[in-house]
Amino acid sequence: MSSSSAAAAAKPPMRDALVAAAFRLFLERGYEQTTVDDIVALAGVGRRSFFRYFPSKEDVVFPDHERCLADMTAFLAASGAEHEPVRRVCDAARLVLRMYAENPAFSVHRYRLTKKVPGLRAYELSVVWRYERALAAYLRGRFAGRPDGTLRADVIAAAVVAAHNNALRSWLRSGGEDDASAAVDRALEYVQSAFGLPSVVVPGEPRADDVIVLVSRRGAPLWRVVQELESALGRG
To answer: DSSP character for 81?
Structure first.
């Protein structure tokens, strides 16, 4: 391989180069003092190249959220009737954690920057709202036909986002040193325990001598256990 081709191979993709240039300037000068012209000058590209990848300066701070939202939407769309809906949305939220954990140093820098810039905080909240809407849309489909289906879907989606973000921010405050997965799992387990349904196993075709096995969490409300048992018996 020639030296010129080796240099080209070592050069980061333009999108990554723009992100790296932006964050270097944000740290050196501050977010408000950095312009798009400054970013493209440091990256060695033109303004047109910047706007090909990012609609605005705010978007360069959150370069992977569109991909993550698309992954989450596809994950939920691939769900089947066999997936318990609350556990499914909890698993979908873990996709966001995985995105942050792919580059802990970058995620920590972004968290610290976002705390300092009110405009970025507002932008981040709009991104979080889009995640929440994706979770709620899936749950509304699963709870369709229930009198409280829409309300239940919205409350659970908000609870998943709140639990996930509480654990995620704790990890970011630690500088990315703590166990992010363990913290998020623990937080989401509260949601699962509060809203998840116990599983019912009915082997084979129903017969008069069938034995129904009902598996429920210790803290599940009695009314929910009875509801699931009635459903299994065809009386719901």
So the answer is: T
